[in-house]
Amino acid sequence: MTAPAVDAFAAIRHPFVRAMALARVSGVIGTQIINVAVGWELYERTGSALSLGLVGLFELTPVLFLMIPAGNAADRYPRRNIAMIAQSVACIAAFGLMAVSWFEGPVNLIYAMLMLVGAARSFSAPAVGTIMPQLLKTEQFVNANAWLSSAFQFASISGPAIGGMIIAWTGGTKWAYFVAALGQIIFIAAFSALPAIAPPEAKEKRKLSDVFAGFSFIRRTPVFLAAITLDMFGVLLGGAVVLLPIFAKDILHVGPEGLGWLRASPSLGSLLMFLAVTRLPPMKRPGRMLLFVVVGFGLATIGFGLSTSFVLSMACLFLTGIFDSISVLIRQTLEQVVTPDRLRGRVSAINYVFIGFSNEFGAFESGATAALFGPIASVVGGGVGTILVVLAVIMAWPALARIGPLHTLKPEEEADIISATEARHSV
Q1: Which of 161, 196, 231 is where one domain is finished?
Q2: Does 175 share its domain with 235?
């Protein structure tokens, strides 16, 4: 008997998924355009590499301070409304950057607008990342996540190119900021098609401990803690992307054009893998697969660090994108299925901060180790460290390798109730 054919387009036929995909593409393209335009303008006006390094710091700072209130807001108010308000703030920031560029305002105002962008992302990320479980069935999560992640990768590839072309055509950044603002407006319009679902009223009076309930949930859910640990340290140690200019210029000798191809390779691998996942049946052993792909990510990173061939280097980066996409898909879906809806905002906010922090700190770690030991040792050492983290996770959380298909898992509280009921019936 042959297995039933997988409907690759099942989720994208759902109007809510299409609306979220449109919002994801437009919002990420807008954000990517801002990143390109800010980097170009700051370096044009200051000629300082430090001014570029401060961009991530100013965007990350509000995230660290707003993580707790943003997560609690996503669990207390309609997530659609929070996302729309947050993107409205991002839109205002884009218009603010346009005004600074137009009137050649002080550089400090650019950093102020970046903090506003960071604040908007603080509230948008947990709201957007947790709205899908309110709208879809559990068995639809993997296919929907694959399509939404594909939309993200498409925007990540096209956004910088669009921003660069606008700057080249117009001779400045102000119109790039204008297009970025339009992207946020399209996001808001697309999200307005989703229902505003209010969370159920709390049965008990809220306590101070409820504010930090997301931390408690992650601590007592070893499978999810293991997954985010793998993701966090994989990003932290495998940050080869920040060193690509060194490899392009001094090791591979391919110049800026080659650098562009190198930077595009991981995103291209991710995009193709996400599209492939839409045609594949659910993973029978997603925990084992997660461990396998993180090891693969580490090996591909080592291969890139040791390569002196441009084609081989591109192939290794392409593989890092493939392995990373599977890791992200499993972690996102796992978070959605094991987290009770009343906690999803708080858990998502914590997860967003940890992954964001590992991105920023991973770039610093790669740069620092490259300065001390050279770029090859930095990249190869990061790949080896990633594999060692997998071994540590296997020993610390063996349950991760034993989990079944993701759509069969239950939120922690519901699983506890079912187990207790089955125990009573067996007596």
Answers
A1: 196
A2: no
pLDDT (tens digit, 9 = 90+) per residue, 360-414? 666 666 777 777 888 888 889 989 999 999 999 999 888 888 888 776 766 754 4
DSSP per-residue letters across 169-233: HHSSSHHHHHHHHHHHHHHHHHHTTS---PPPPPSS---HHHHTHHHHHHHT-HHHHHHHHHHHH
Contact 336, 133 (CB under 8 A): yes
Is residue 296 a contact partner of residue 323, using CB atoms and an 8 Å limit?
yes
Residue 147 falls inside a structural domain = yes
Which residue is listed with tokens 């884009």?
94
Give the pLDDT confidence of 92-113 residue by residue, as tens digits: 999 999 999 999 889 999 999 9
pTM: 0.71
Distance CA 39, CA 146 (A): 30
Last residue of one domain, picked from the residues 196, 224, 249: 196
- Domain of residue 72: give its range: 14-196
How many domains does one find in the chain? 2
202 within a domain of the structure (yes/no): no
Residues in the chain, overall count: 427
CA 170 to chain centroid, in Å, comes to 31
In a domain, 8, yes or no: no
> For residue 408, what is the enclosing H or E element?
none
